[in-house]
Amino acid sequence: MVEVALLFVAALLVGFAKTAVGGLASISVAIFASVMPARESTAAILLLLVTGDLVAVWHYRANADWALLRRLIPMVLPGLALGALFLAVVDDDVLRRSIGVLLLVLAAVQLALRWKSPDTTQVGRSRAAALGTGLASGFTTMTANAAGPVMTLYLVAQGVEKRRFLGTSALFFFGVNLCKIPFSAGLGLFSTATLQRTALLVPFVLLGAWAGLHGARRLSQARFDQAVLAATVVSAVALVVR
């Protein structure tokens, strides 16, 4: 019963993360991995993420920054390929925790920069930062479903306004997660049991998305930035300890 309740909470968090505070979905990834077999949990959470992506894209599609997306996309597929290669040769647990530690370091650097100077956008707007974020997003989503915090840190460094943040993230992750479906299907991860379980959790994703849409409206830009950075730290810790 406890495991079922945890899955419901995880599904709610997926929806809320997609429409309000990005990065929280990594906590859902950790919950799924703790109550389901690792391979099965990867496929189940992917389908829920796509569901949340659809809601977010529909509501925030007009706010997406296409110029920013074009800078990120070229390195995503190489990142996915690099992640797949590393998974073939590196222990999964060690790699996931390493990514968590790296995210904590990046979050600490971002917070330090914001403390020293409110304007961190010049660093975030460089081409190298965009290419590095695209590569890291592809790599981390393939190895640990942890691209959310990477994207969050990049967009916060860009000084992206709240709705543009949500619209850009929605389209980016919708595309990335769709790219992952053939990989998962090819590995035979979409069993009948996984599809049935996912179908039962979809309403909770939609409920979480609804709550996120209402919550995002009430957050000021300053509070929004603080919330997504805090979610990044929590998500990174979840990756380290899960």
Automatic annotation (TrEMBL):
The chain crosses the membrane at residues 43-60, 72-89, 95-113, 134-157, 169-191, 198-216, 222-241. Its main location: membrane. It holds the Pfam family TauE. Signal peptide: none annotated. It is a multi-pass membrane protein. It is found in: Cell membrane. InterPro entries: TM_pro_TauE-like (IPR002781), TSUP (IPR052017). Keywords: Cell membrane, Membrane, Transmembrane, Transmembrane helix, Transport. Coiled coil: none annotated. Belongs to the 4-toluene sulfonate uptake permease (TSUP) (TC 2.A.102) family. This is Probable membrane transporter protein. It comes from Pedococcus ginsenosidimutans.
